[in-house]
Write a structure and sequence with these properties.
about 300 residues, mainly beta, 8-stranded mixed beta sheet, 5-stranded antiparallel beta sheet, 1 helix, 21 strands
Length: about 300
């Protein structure tokens, strides 16, 4: 699953004295608060920040350097306010990375402690879907707040649309071989989706096609149409088994690839068409550091 990335850093900025102690850890919680915006920090009547999730652990100052260190624990999990969505319903996640200088016993990258699930965006009739999510934190030690919403940094997470459907991709090297009128047609029950070849999104050396609304267990037919002639690519294909190779009646490479390129060499391709996950999400991006704690002072 492709997600955006935020890195958490703890900073001391000379605020009033902290409840944390030198050496001995005290219970601590990082609260993640967020809000959706249509326009970044320029939206009239912007909503208030709301609690999204909590991460519990313990905090202590290093005995020698007084650097704050938050112990997470290998089995820790984020406690989300919103229930987990139903099976098959798409959602957005924010991958959390933790600054090793400030965090101890950091769970693995795939741990539930490192995947912040964004809440369901609000639906307002007549208004566009939010394009930004702002994230900030509140930090508590021994039950008392040490940084408030107004103190911690705010991270902007640009949002791309969640697109759901059948995703198939081919090597972009086929651009030179397929006919200009090539049309891909996917059918599933009463649903039919058509895409021209150049409507596929380029991603490195691959061209990706999203057939919206085609998903689930019902079998799929996939055809290629050119100059009035139809070539069957798939026939009653199961698209739920991503770990199994697709069964091809014909391939675009076999049907349209020229036997010999102009320079005398035969064209080569990375692979045949590949079935991908049926949810396309924003690509991995790092949007900078999120200073989760900004109000530490010296401990007593």
């Amino acid at each position: 699953m492709r997600v955006s990335v935020a890195r958490l850093v703890l900073e001391t900025r000379g605020a009033p004295q902290s409840n944390a102690s030198r050496g001995a850890g005290k219970p601590a919680t990082i609260e993640f608060h967020g809000r959706y915006l249509r326009e970044l920090r320029r939206q009239d009547g912007a909503p208030e920040f709301a609690l999204v999730a909590k991460l519990s652990g313990s905090l202590a100052f290093d005995e020698k350097t007084l650097v704050p260190r938050f112990t997470i624990g290998a089995d820790a999990e984020l406690e989300h306010e919103e229930p987990k969505p139903e099976e098959g319903k798409p959602f957005r996640q924010l991958k959390l990375e933790f600054e090793p200088e400030n965090f101890l016993e950091i769970p693995s990258a795939e741990s539930a402690a490192c995947r912040l699930r964004l809440p369901t965006p609000p639906e307002v009739e007549g208004e566009p879907e939010p394009r930004h999510f702002e994230l900030t934190t509140v930090f508590e030690v021994a039950g008392a707040a040490e940084s408030e919403l107004e103190v911690s940094d705010v991270l902007d997470v640009p949002l791309g649309p969640i697109r759901v459907g059948l995703v198939v991709e081919w090597p972009s090297a086929l651009d030179e071989s397929v006919p200009t009128d090539l049309l891909l047609v996917a059918k599933q029950g009463g649903i039919e989706r058509k895409l021209e070849w150049l409507q596929g999104d380029l991603d490195g050396d691959r061209r990706r096609f999203l057939f919206r609304g085609i998903l689930g267990a019902a079998p799929v037919d996939l055809n290629a149409v050119s100059h009035g002639k139809t070539f069957v690519l798939w026939e009653q294909q199961d698209i739920t088994q991503l770990d199994k190779p697709s069964v091809w009646k014909n391939t675009l490479e076999d049907v349209f690839a020229s036997p010999q390129a102009p320079d005398g060499r035969k064209p080569s391709f990375v692979s045949k068409g590949v079935l991908r996950s049926n949810v396309v999400k924003p690509v991995d991006s790092s949007f900078g550091n999120l200073d989760a704690v900004d109000a530490f002072g010296e401990e007593e």
